[in-house]
Here is the input.
Amino acid sequence: MQPAPFNQPLSDITKSGTYILKLIKPKDDAAIAKRFKWSNPDEAGKSFATCNLFFLGGDGLCLTQRFSVKYYTDKVTGEQKAGMALPMVVGKFSGTYAKAPSEDMSVEQLFKFVSIAFGRRATVEVEVTPNGEWNGKPQYRYRFKKITPIESVAYSAPADDSVNPDDLAPPTGEAIPF
Here is the structure.
């Protein structure tokens, strides 16, 4: 995957497949306010924190996915359950466990919850379905089928030749098992 040149236009992902995507952090407070906000009130008059997350691939392909902290009612049991899509995306991209957020979470708390995954990359298997048009442009519905995190490569400083290898032996005097 080659990084997209700065002058390359972005285009929506239109075909199902596997892509290397990076979760992009909004660039400023105005962009954060546009992407992280309260939903319209539901039938009970309650609003929930929502976010539109922007994912960018190396070829200029991108997608935006909407998430909410609103719980849903299980059709079989009638119980209120947390949606697991957002914690799954945050957990997979960040490489950490992310439990389901509270339904009462504020927009600021939602931004903090998602922020651990910003700038991280993952291999994502995406199922794409056409979803009508808006302003004459085709729209798509995305479903993440599988997400595999890509480990960040940490570059260290050059080795320090002044370190004595004998000082690195285990304190018990046992040999290192590998």
